[in-house]
């Protein structure tokens, strides 16, 4: 394997691909990938002699990365994990690999790293099949005292307290979060969960984790105007410019799919704030640059 592929399972890749190509057939794509993977495992080579690139081959005929894309080396292109078998990162050091992968993604995709990170399963939501997730969510039970307290609050309501907010934050940033349990309440658009997040934001308006949580609701519920207002407040109040930079990226990423252009709005808001405006302008320029390059050139 050439350096630079991002390993991904067939299932995750199919989900990702279908997200952006809604009219493709899941079964057909999975079969094409299975076939190409099997060809790769059986040492089928590109006409030029290189090993075939499974993902590109499934979509456009068996060939290597270079022959398909015309580029010397993959940069942030995916490859099916099983075809990356002999790669050193596959053995053992997976956590370090994921950490490096995350840092790399943030560096390479300053404009859309949230989405990129979501793709590799860092958020509440991962790219496993929807039905399988629903199964997990139905089966999820609270395991820690924090989880029990939170579930009781989600189910029955009650007083909003700092202890509850702390419990929520602790669970979210735990080493092994109980994702299915929390996802269940997000998907239900649980009003108490939403209250807790908004109450947290009242107290800590610039907390980017809570803003992320609110934007996660946007996947299931229409909270767009609330989300926009909360992000604007955060951008106004955040004085640390590094954190401001991240907030601006998150704001843009979490609202653009709903048709809102946060950059446009923020440019006007910070017209007279040289430092903040400079950050916004830099991000706009980076976005334009990355759009010109079209980094994800998976052929169809
Ligand atoms: Zn080739």
Tell me the strand percentage band.
Answer: under 5%
Q: Give a count of the beta strands, DSSP E runs of length 2 or more.
A: 2
Helix content: 55-70%
| Category by helix and strand content | mainly alpha
Provide an overview of this structure.
- The structure is a single chain.
- This protein is mostly helical.
- It has two domains: 86 residues, no CATH class; 164 residues.
- Helices cover 61% and strands 2% of the residues.
- A two-stranded parallel sheet has the order 1-2.
- Helix 7 packs across helix 10.
- The C terminus is likely disordered.
- Bound molecules: zinc ion.
- The site of zinc ion has 7 residues, from helix 4.
Q: How is the topology of this model organized?
A:
Elements: E1 6-8, H1 10-20, H2 26-41, H3 54-60, H4 65-69, E2 78-80, H5 94-108, H6 113-119, H7 130-139, H8 145-156, H9 162-172, H10 179-187, H11 191-203, H12 208-217, H13 224-237, H14 241-255, H15 262-269, H16 274-293
Parallel strand pairs: 1-2
Helix pairs in contact: 1-2, 2-3, 5-6, 7-10, 8-9, 11-12, 12-13, 12-14, 13-14, 14-16
The protein binds zinc ion.
């Amino acid at each position: 394997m050439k350096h630079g592929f991002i390993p991904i399972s067939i299932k995750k890749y199919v989900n990702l691909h279908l997200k952006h190509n809604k009219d493709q057939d899941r079964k057909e794509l999975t079969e094409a990938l299975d076939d190409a993977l099997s060809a790769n495992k059986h040492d089928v080579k590109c006409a030029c002699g290189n090993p075939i690139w499974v993902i590109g081959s499934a979509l456009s005929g068996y060939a290597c990365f270079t022959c398909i894309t015309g580029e010397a080396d993959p940069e942030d292109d995916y490859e099916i994990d099983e075809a990356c078998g002999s790669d050193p990162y596959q053995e053992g050091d997976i956590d370090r690999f994921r950490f490096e992968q995350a840092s790399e993604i943030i560096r390479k995709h300053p404009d859309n790293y949230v989405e990129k990170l979501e793709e590799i399963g860092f958020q509440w939501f991962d790219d496993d099949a929807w039905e399988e997730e629903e199964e997990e969510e139905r089966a999820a039970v609270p395991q820690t005292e924090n989880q029990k307290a939170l579930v009781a609050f989600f189910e029955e309501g009650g007083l909003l307290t700092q202890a509850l907010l702390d419990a929520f934050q602790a669970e979210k940033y735990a080493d092994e979060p109980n994702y299915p349990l929390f996802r269940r309440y997000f998907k239900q658009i649980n009003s108490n969960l939403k209250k807790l997040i908004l109450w947290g934001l009242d107290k800590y308006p610039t907390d980017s984790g809570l803003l992320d949580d609110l934007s996660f609701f946007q996947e299931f519920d229409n909270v767009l105007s609330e989300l926009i207002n909360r992000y604007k407040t955060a951008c106004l109040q955040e004085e640390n410019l590094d954190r401001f930079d991240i907030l601006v990226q998150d704001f843009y990423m979490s609202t653009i799919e709903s048709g809102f252009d946060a950059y446009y709005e923020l440019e006007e808001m910070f017209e007279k704030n040289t430092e903040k405006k400079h950050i916004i302008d830099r991000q706009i320029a980076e976005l334009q640059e990355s759009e010109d390059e079209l980094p994800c050139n998976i052929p169809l």
